[in-house]
Amino acid sequence: MVSARPLKVALLGCGVVGSQVARLMTTHAHDLAARIGAPVELAGVAVRRPDRLREGVPPELVTTDAAALAAREDIDVAVEVIGGIEPARSLIATAFEAGASVVTANKALLAEDGPALYAMAEKHGADLYYEAAVAGAIPLLRPLRESLAGDTVNRVLGIVNGTTNFILDRMETSGAGYGEALAEATALGYAEADPTADVEGFDAAAKAAILAGIAFHTRVRLDDVHREGLTEVTAADIASARRMGCTVKLLAICERAADGRSVTARVHPAMIPLTHPLASVREAYNAVFVEADSAGRLMFYGPGAGGAPTASAVLGDLVAACRNKVTGARGPGESAYTQLPVAPMGEVVTRYHISLDVADKPGVLSQVAAVFADHDVSIDTVRQQGKDGEASLVVVTHRAPDAALSATVDTLRGLDTVRGVASIMRVEGE
Amino acid sequence: MVSARPLKVALLGCGVVGSQVARLMTTHAHDLAARIGAPVELAGVAVRRPDRLREGVPPELVTTDAAALAAREDIDVAVEVIGGIEPARSLIATAFEAGASVVTANKALLAEDGPALYAMAEKHGADLYYEAAVAGAIPLLRPLRESLAGDTVNRVLGIVNGTTNFILDRMETSGAGYGEALAEATALGYAEADPTADVEGFDAAAKAAILAGIAFHTRVRLDDVHREGLTEVTAADIASARRMGCTVKLLAICERAADGRSVTARVHPAMIPLTHPLASVREAYNAVFVEADSAGRLMFYGPGAGGAPTASAVLGDLVAACRNKVTGARGPGESAYTQLPVAPMGEVVTRYHISLDVADKPGVLSQVAAVFADHDVSIDTVRQQGKDGEASLVVVTHRAPDAALSATVDTLRGLDTVRGVASIMRVEGE
Q1: CA–CA separation, A113 vs A324, rounded Å?
Q2: Does the beta-carbon distance from A312 to B295 stay under 8 Å?
Q3: Residue A330 and residue B332: Cβ atoms within 8 Å?
Q4: FRET pair for A421, CA 20 to 30 Å: which of A137, A226, A327, B59?
Q5: Which residue in chain B is spatially nearest to A300 when comparing CA positions?
Q6: Are B170 and B185 within 8 A, CB to CB?
Q7: Residues A352-397 pLDDT 10s
Q8: Where is L-homoserine bound in this sequence (chains A, B) (predicted)?
Q9: Structural domains present in chain B
């Protein structure tokens, strides 16, 4: 039953995602109206370059004055797909002030300023939806915020950056080094010309902050997320992972401490067993594991980026925001009541794979083992390989606090018999 | 901010799922109140056997008069976890009439009478939620109803029955026959004493009807779902699947026809490639693939049954229904506006694996191939195996309508040189 007045949507940004949103709003107008209970119309499209041809976007809707579009009082929902902090933040503030609900795909802004955005939405009685900000088309935030609202989430572990997964997948399957795999990713359009945000883990860290906040009903800032990129992962690391039945993935990991009194959030490369469902996530796909008290282990898998998949998530939110406008309802607001502190990385407890270059002489293993024991880090397995008077020692530990492992490595570096620490990588997913 | 009056919940049924719901409502009362914005209290628990001890359920709340509990006008949300058609249907009707919203895990009732339940909810301005009815703890219905509300779903393909997946997994890993694997499933509590609903596919068919209706915004009744169980799957079928790089799964498959003018829903055993993500779903786990125009391929994975996982889904819905009561909002109602007809099984187009016992003499293959050609069913591969004057012929077809395949098999059965049709199985997931 479609009877109400048409709802008006302002589209802020018309790039890869925005142009798909505009296209789908036009081609799917009939379905959207039926699902919302009212017709929905594109009232304006703010762009930077008005001269560029945009298929399916009526030219008369295009404007370069995004602020004026956001300020229009006849707009029901503003869709922000510009990205970055400014002008996105100001435009969203303007839209809320003008009475609109906001749908955004902006992970950076949510991670930096989520609570302020929620407060604006609350103040103006509007909705804030941002499913597309994490893991593209994969329904993940709504399940966490709503489907699991009666459960206790203990852990979120996921591949949330497609570029780095593509690079690691190529290194794994072809034996290529990091540089070569990055070049391939760039050539195929999976990596941007400046890949820093992806390969240094900034993109994944923003998503980890958002996920941790939602999963644990607390506030986690981008600065709270421990971050290591994948630029130092070598072909040797991947071969070494393979020898122990593992593969290397760049993971975002959000955990509630065992005592329930703090949370942690981190992004770093890690080895995971080939038998773990995340190990078989190939190419630029994303997948997120969620562990909850009652639900057990859930996994969500799908395309983590791209214009159409991200637009699918934006439109799902747009339908929700529009339905609420029609019925006078409100979607869930911020849920940060647990106010759990974010513990430093040193308190994270996990396993480690450490590769050492050592002198090939008797007593080295015993000396190294003593250092681990001194720092209370228990060793699971050791593998020694000799070559030309040098030897390598690969140690895999049991679970230990990150601080204890760091102290162990510092002491190891000081030993005469240890020529170097070739690599340190965490082992997850067991 | 928790300020509103307490919300009252009637729990109708206190078996495996209900007792977990009661436990979680008590132990998680603080979290639930914070997430809902009002305290929530268990106002009554309807049971059949009041003498049974129920840990965590205050005895004074227990009643055998379910109808009276459902009729109480102070109840905000009724949770129905009795299962089956009656008395569940009457109790839900009573609860709606008394002004309550309803959360249910009742797949049989939803598949049989979903539209009537929705109509009651609509009439009384109440909510109807039933995430737990399909795939237990896995958030699946909310993502389909809400996250993908701006997309066009073309296909839902899933393992939605844990018992049969456990049986097939055991047959696959141990080489056991169906009877032996069923006995193991029964001994371990994965199969009920009367396993008919699971092994004959009734349970999965009810879920397929629900999924198809939601995915395609139409009405699909249980009777519309083509259903074949797994009782005729043999160890030979599984070995044969393995030889072509496949495994056998009992799948629920809902599809929109290529022309968009009809839908189909079916449950049957099928071969799927080992490389397909559903192939690695082991034991009693469930997983559902969703293919949508813009989102692409999504997968949802997790525990499909069990008291605590199902209770997690029920509580998620309970939080949603309670939030709506607090804010005066309504969740999404029925969306069946496309009114797409359900096409018969004969119109389903897929691939087939057919195993024939034939006479071991020249010309048989040519004769058999001619029958396929006569019915316009194109052959992909043929494998011949001779043994003691008899031979077996394994034919894998390209995509063809089910009716054409059935006619082909009928003709084959009439050939002198065909001693028997050992098995016919569809090949999916490519």
Answers
A1: 24
A2: yes
A3: no
A4: A226
A5: B300
A6: yes
A7: 999 999 998 888 999 999 999 999 999 999 998 877 777 899 999 9
A8: 192
A9: 7-136+307-327 (3.40.50.720), 151-303 (3.30.360.10), 345-427 (3.30.70.260)
